[in-house]
């Protein structure tokens, strides 16, 4: 079974040159989107992918650069695509705040009896640290990782052998001990703050302290508009580009 990833966006929260960090996981016949930030619907439009072609959306945490495009997706599935249902894969810890604190303001519509997240999406709650088959040929395990203190956020193991950090503070024990030594992941997608101190993200400086054999497996994502200045300064790691497709099989 084949599995590919296509980056919909590789930009950080405030990037203007690239769309918010997001990706499509593609099996032979299904597409699951990882996160859907505010600028991601425009990326889908550029790729001529209509909302009804997305079979599922997986959310890593609640920041606008990861969930800000969901209202548009929900409305368009409902009104432009004849109430098309799409799965929403989400940790239990995120489901209530996603609705109550982010989406309800726009999507709650008592006159149309649209009252809950389930009125828009087929919500599938993902357990932490358990591999779940989202569709044939695609399994995901979410693991809680540190991003903002006391705010849940998740990284992903995709088909056991790919690690997708989402937004994460530097965690070399996780990367070396679990991602490489225990699971032998062949591919790592890692967020990368290019300059300054990494209060809530991992910095390039921190990633450069990793052993070369770990760096070789890392694609850098979630970077700001200064990325071109850093080409050739990322050790054994490379920047993944917006709309790039990578084989994960
Ligand atoms: N405690 C925080 C919280 C947020 N932020 C910035 O806001 C952005 C929200 O999206 P992000 O991609 O998580 O990156 C966060 C920081 O840039 C930050 O710098 N410090
Ligand atoms: Zn982010
Ligand atoms: Zn974030």
Quick structural summary:
Counteracts the endogenous Pycsar antiviral defense system. Phosphodiesterase that enables metal-dependent hydrolysis of host cyclic nucleotide Pycsar defense signals such as cCMP and cUMP. By secondary structure, the chain is of the alpha/beta class. 22% of the residues lie in helices and 24% in strands.
Describe this structure in words.
It contains seven helices and 14 strands. It is α/β, with parallel strands linked by helices. The protein has one domain: 4-Layer Sandwich (Metallo-beta-lactamase, Chain A), CATH 3.60.15. A seven-stranded mixed beta sheet has the order 6-5-4-3-2-1-14. A hairpin with a 4-residue loop joins strand 2 and strand 3. The structure holds the ligand Nc1ccn([C@@H]2O[C@@H]3COP(=O)(O)O[C@H]3[C@H]2O)c(=O)n1 and zinc ion (2 copies). It catalyses: 3',5'-cyclic UMP + H2O = UMP + H(+); 3',5'-cyclic CMP + H2O = CMP + H(+). Keywords: Endonuclease, Hydrolase, Nuclease, Zinc. This is Ribonuclease Z. It comes from Paenibacillus whitsoniae.
